[in-house]
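Re: the multi-chain job from yesterday

Posting the exact lines I submitted so nobody has to dig through the queue logs.
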Amino acid sequence: MSMSVSPEQNAEQSITADDVVNIQHVSFEYDGISIFKDISLSIPKGKITVVLGPSGTGKSTLLKLISGQLQPQQGKVFTLGHDMSTLSMAELLKVRRRLSLLFQSGALFSDLSVFENVAFPLREHTKLPEHMIRDLVLLRLESVGLRGIAQQMPVQLSGGMARRVAMARSIILDPELIMYDEPFTGQDPISMGVLVKLIQDLKNELNLTSVLVSHDVDEALSIADHIYILEGGKIIAQGDVEDIIHSKDERVVQFLNGHADGPVPFHHAAKPITEEVLND
Amino acid sequence: MINRLVLKTAKTLRSKIQNIGASLLYSCAMVGRATWFLWLILPWGKGFKAPFKRLLQQIYSLGVLSLPIIVVAGVFVGMVLALQGYHILARYGSQEAIGQMVGLSLLREFGPVVTALLFAGRAGSALTAEIGLMKTTEQLNAMEVMGVDPFKRIMSPRLWAGVISLPLLALLFSVLGIYGGAFVAVDVLGIYDGSYWANMQSSISFYDDVIKGVIKTVIFALVVTWIAIFHGWHAKPTSEGVAMATTRTVVQASLAVLALDFILTAVMLGNF
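And the result, structure tokens for all chains:
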């Protein structure tokens, strides 16, 4: 996929019936601040799509738009074939049962044990007998390597373990789409490696469609099938890993290499220093 | 010069009127939002067994865990009432009416109002902090994304638990206060126990004093729990946000209880 074509045009051209999510010409403002300006992108079925970008570019907001927690002021968001802006609350809750979102903090329920946290979606949405719930929960905990801590409380877990438990909870209802919000932030190298492996395993074994937003370039690129880079409310680049690595766009080069100064300036907009400091 | 002064005064006046208008509009919007919020959290949820279990858990956390403060406060308020009442009534030689005074004061006023104030401080603040922290740690968001309605799952059981717990706590407060008063009046000050209990029995009406007191506490319970849950849900997801929301709950719930007490008392006594 060539980088010379407008990234947003590419996104529109690539929309197909197999896409799990279609975002079309979405503009979104929060508290009068523009977060997205006319962005379009699509998430293909069975692939890991990574959305990269500096902090504060609205990556987590994008996930909230996909799950229908926020509505765009302009444009359309289609998730699992539904226009999320036209659904009633009951319909929205029904669609949400088919997707899951792994929060940055894990968002485990602090008053429930690890076992009960993972069992929560089953208890809420199914009428399975207790022995079946027990087996399913233990199998999911086994898949993230944490069957041994089923009876512990969330407060006793490390950040990495909490995210793995949250991952087990996210996949307990076999969702069609799983979204990861900054899964690698604040993780030690071993936890990071475990999370990368788990995300890959889920895709390979369950053919799960995944959207991952992150600013951890190396880990994200190591598992991505398709990448979008967000900056300043726009998609500045998209393509596979090779396209992104060989991009000549100065903003992409700055982001991938972590240069302190460049098209994204080191200094935030301010009055000249001579005017503010030296002119007493 | 005078023109400029007049213009400046007019500008200040206009800005003050605008500020008053803006705060009035904001207050109206808040009342509207809070009413809509109450409408959303009233429904009980599907089924019976699971919501009932959640209700029992919340009755334990709001009601049972408030017992120590209610028990201690009830006994001491009753004891102080008897002590103060004895010295005032003794001036008129009516110290035998102490039982009547303690019973009526507790059932009509002190029981409902002091219990509601203590409930706002202990259970109301805990509710706001709990829901605010659930919001800060994205637990409520996670629930929504899982297709579970947090209004029915989290808020509704807490509201109903408050409405059930507070009237029971207020009755307990009054009963313990009456026994605390009996201890001071009969055992310490030497009032004949027959007159303490008989005076109380003959002057207290079950409907006018006990039932009307319970009606008050049900209304206080609804308002205090509603305010606590509303501020928890609307707390800014930061530590300062949760702290401010908790403070707002205690202040607004306490003032609401006192204001409502005046209105309800006036209505019940037939003054309005």
